[in-house]
Fold:
Amino acid sequence: MTAVVTRFAPSPTGFMHVGGVRTALYSWLYARKHGGRFILRIEDTDKEREVAGAIPHIIESLAWLGIEWDEGIDRGGPHAPYLQSERLDLYRSYAHTLIAAGHAYPDPYTETEVEAFRKKAEEEKRPFLFRDHRPETSDTWDGTKPLRFRAPRIIRYEWNDLARGRLGAGEEAVDDFILIKGDGYPTYNFAHIVDDIEMGVTHVMRGEEFISSTPKYLSLYEALGVTPPAFVTMPVILSPDGKKKLSKRDGAKDILEYRNEGYLPEALMNFLALLGWNPGTEQEFFSKDELIRTFDLSRIQISGAGFDEIKLLSVNQHWMRQLSLENFIAQGGFSTFDISKLKKTVPLLKERAHTFAEAREMLSGELSCLFSEPTLERDRLVAKEPIERSGMTLSALKSLYEAIKTIPDGVSAEAVKDVLMPLANAEEAKGKGGRGAMLWPLRYTLSGQERSPDPFTLISILGSDEALSRIRKAIGILEG
Ligand code: GLU
Structure:
């Protein structure tokens, strides 16, 4: 069996989005699984659609995700160059082979003439086929005219798609399409086939928009006398409600935006792998190595895959939780926060945050009290005090103060709770709501916020001394 060779061949026409990255991922996984090679080739033959900066962006996105290529742009290899615009001589030489064998001819018409043929066909309500206007004789091709493929008359094309099974299309599918344009650049249809042949590609994975053109590719392979590679069609990615194709509005964004928002590459890889492929088990979380081991083509689904952002958040949270304390801090972008306090806060962040951006927001929001002393308001301190038990907040804080003095530093939230809860329960015994009336001012005293972690967790992170100092301040306000 020949070794597996796959490739990712993006056109540099914009940023990398989830669809493109998923194609790269599946191609890469398949090559890795079979000990094959994965190539990164840039298809830049449509100079009008090219976007500046797109190539470095593609490279950066794949590198961030950990999808390494064995040969290709920025890396070199036996089939260099990997930029199609630098391979024009090669396409020309294939073109001459096709001309010599009678499979290609220069288009003798002007654009206006071709347009007139098209219009006439439309008026007569029949499909426009260039091959109906094929000239009897051809000039030699000097490279200034488009070069067209002489499409064979084949009744029906059928082929096997490794994800979709048997696919087919009728004769109208293949016309005399352009191989090389008047500007000297090859079309996608031609260039990618030349390159896939030259680079020994065995499996081509791409979106379903290419199915209708597959008969063209098959007839070109035939004309060149080469066996086509295996085709694998990716399922379309749908919006979260599953009703339409994923658009920018429903989250089809630049993959590097996920990095900026504090997603982990292992999470994106895990999530994208399952977006259109299923392992056949209930397993939800896959490391890179597990994916390489488990991935196969037969479980690529045919129907569209809904893009579920909530799922992505939970996958990201899972991978954030796997990080060691040091890695969590190193990757989180937390440089503005006090490191020793941060270390104590990491377990809380792992429990609550789904992304590093969310973690940073928490540190400046509901968890900011762990880094700086809050300002307290008297009205808020007594907000939960029952009318019939006036002065209760003050006495509650005083007894809590005495109890907290006995708590050593470095103990767990559970241990703090064991010391303080009996006091709160005793208050509850005196009157319904007493527990809350005691714990609310404690939590507010420590955090200065309506919402925060529970007071036991806060004390275990802040340490008793800091907690006592904050309680003294609250007592001062109530007595003042
Ligand atoms: N250059 C094509 C694109 O970006 C790639 C299609 C293919 O993989 O053959 O859409």
About this structure: The pocket of glutamic acid is lined by residues 9-11, 43, 188, 192, 206 (CB under 6 Å). Residues 324 and 330 are 10 Å apart (CA to CA). The mean pLDDT is 94.
